Fold these 3 entries.
Entry 1:
Amino acid sequence: MIPVCKPWLPGNEKKYIDDAVETNWISSNGEYITRFEEDFAQFCKTKYAACCTSGLAALHLACSALGLKKGDEVIAPTFTMAASTNAIIFTGAKPVLVDSDPETYCIDADKIEEKITERTKAIMPVHIYGHPCDMDKINYLAKKYNLYVIEDAAEAHGAEYNGKRCGSMSDVGCFSFYANKIITTGEGGMCTTQNKEIADRIKKLRNHAFDHPRFVHSEVGFNYRITNLQAAIGCAQMENAKMLVDARREVGIRYNQRLEKVKGLILPKEKSYAKNVYWMYGVVLDENVRLSRDELKDKLAEEGIETRSFFIPMHQQPAYVNKTAENVPDCSGSFPIADRISRRGFYLPSSSNISDEEIDYVCNSLEQILKEN
Ligand SMILES: Cc1ncc(COP(=O)(O)O)c(C=O)c1O
């Protein structure tokens, strides 16, 4: 089976883990932690970075550090992974959903303004599948209405908008280092920011909000501390960050070239402002293809090719539709783009170190199945 994605640890990962174990620095202090944060801030071109246990933790820390609370609203895309909107819900604030751009699948920046109310406190763009959102439009609206912007860059390590790195164009950028991410620590997350006060607040909140003296807490904190072991892997990954990002992008470009002329598939786009890193190479089946997306996925599986369906949009999630909390998003709107891509979209094997032969095999199999059906 060609897996949909597997981690790639091509450098000093094992050496640094061994070092952390041998020196006994296995918990949430240790020099790999500060080094990982410094390296990641430099990579994103931000002044500060604070690591934590997951992408969800990064988003929750960002929302909390910016003071989101009950009664507030945050504008977010319906087409995302549930961590984006759940992080908002944790704070008591309510996500307000917006449909996707038909080309990039990111939040449709032209549909944000109509959702802004006096309760809106922030916008959370999510750089879907490694393609940046239209950040100039989003930041223009944020300035006009005095809103925070939290970038969910969980899928967009190294992606760029007009030369600026994802995670550097907002109040806080949030990353995931889960095993399928372009840079991974197994599990892990990072907040990036240009603002020292926000960085300090995130670091305090992730560590039980310890005050001075210790065991005095002036606010409710969390334990979202990463260990020196994960940070050791992170440091090794950062030494190869350019190679890891370039390799993932090359996979996307090779798929684009090989599938360009295949009928029945809508391929991912790269807007003129964007450097797409193709975190996952997502294709959408044209409406005139008779096969359903799941039938096609099954046929690919028979050929030894693992694929994954696109996200199911937030307005279709039972946890939200069934109002399991008072501040879950209103699911009653119309979201035709998200509905369509979620029904017809899936991603192909996208590991950074997938071979050219494997990509060719996937493309030939896909082309053959589409021809026969
Ligand atoms: C857009 C998005 N946000 C947040 C997350 C959450 O990251 P984690 O799994 O590290 O909590 C993911 C995970 O894949 C994601 O795709």
Entry 2:
Amino acid sequence: MATLVPCLDALRSEFNRNFPRRDKSSDGWIGDAAHQASRSDHNPDSRGIVHAIDVDEDLRAPGASLRECVEEVVRRHRAGRDNRLTYVIYERTIWSASYDWRPRDYSGSNPHDKHAHFSASYVRARENSRAPFGVEDIVTQADRDDIVRRTTAAVVAALSDRDKQADGSFTSMIGRNALDQGIPPANGVTPRWAAWRVMTDTRTRIVELESMIEQLQTKIDGLSRTASAPAQQGY
Ligand SMILES: [Zn+2]
């Protein structure tokens, strides 16, 4: 009984998790009769392990594309942050470890314009690693909408809570609300990993803005004290 190499099983799961509605018609792993006539990572090796998967390009996730995923996976390999793949083919382009992951024209009979092909290493430790490949970092339009919704709610809540602060200040309300309402585990609905990652950056920016608002508030308070001070002094 043939099995798929664990690292590619993890990569396929990452695609399924990140794009739960994706089309799988052009997916594949174990080679058919045509594959078995030639050398292919889709054929089981002597241990019965298959070292290739094909992933359908239709992710059914507006705002994200298979190209973006391929580029992220390749970028990590090129930067030396991953070494579990040996080559990737997509849209007449091949990126391989043996050519430092530089893109080269692929002229094989299948142009790979409906799916991307991922081939894995035969080195045991690499085969067995199920660490993320970077696909889960790809942000979809739904993630962007989610980020905007959560961030807006957090800022609105902070602004309306301002009156409740004894001293009338914002006192970390915006940053704290963004943290409490937008980011798990405090919020009931957990954003997807990709959205969460962007929101963490957004929160940092909000905390910066918050401190700018505090400074402006102090300035305004100072100005209004001066303006309302009795003017009779010196007379
Ligand atoms: Zn393939």
Entry 3:
Amino acid sequence: MHFDLASMPREQAYKLLVSTVVPRPIALTTTVDKKGRVNAAPFSFFNAVSSDPPVVVLGITAGGPAGEGTKDTARNIREVGEFVVNLVDEALAQRMNICAVDFPPEMGELEAASLESVPSLAVRPPRIAASPVSFECRRLAGLSFGPHSTLEVGRVIHVHIRDDLVDPQKLYVASEKMRLIGRMHGRGWYARTSDLFEMNRLTFAEWQERRG
Ligand SMILES: Cc1cc2nc3c(=O)[nH]c(=O)nc-3n(C[C@H](O)[C@H](O)[C@H](O)COP(=O)(O)O)c2cc1C
């Protein structure tokens, strides 16, 4: 079946995209506004897109039903130029979900979700203490796709990894122990990362050998 996304209402195009590009990693993103007030919100249009330099991206689509308004995260990143991406494990899932509630401006998401924050080393937004991995990022660029949608691009300056997950000598990270979750389809489906399989990458010679 074929769908012409350009001629479809935005909600329908969204539905097709988010139910096919799965699972998506979740960036529980902390930012501060010009007055230093902390904001936290999850984003699953998120990924690491370069390692040299280390770069992550966040896709942020404006709030209202017609895409009007601006999300606090997008405004803060543009105005302050910094953000922290906190990865989300199973233990953080419920509290991450609370951070996506559309609270009135006077309410902070971290307090509402009972999330403790820790000052960052190089950027103003704090990181979330309970997150297994946090990336302190400085804004490199922003790409506007139209009135509703932006891509914020950040260079990772520092990465914090929970002590029990990393061997600092070998730089070995026990990814399978992190129990990160991914966002699936619909408004409320998520995936665990506990069902793994191994497949080594082949050299050309190995591929030829297998073909016989
Ligand atoms: C798991 C999850 C992933 C989300 N991913 C995105 C996303 O990639 N882009 C986006 O614009 N909103 C996304 N949202 C919705 C925002 O988190 C939500 O609109 C939030 O209230 C924005 O907060 P802010 O205005 O404080 O930035 C997601 C929500 C959840 C629960």
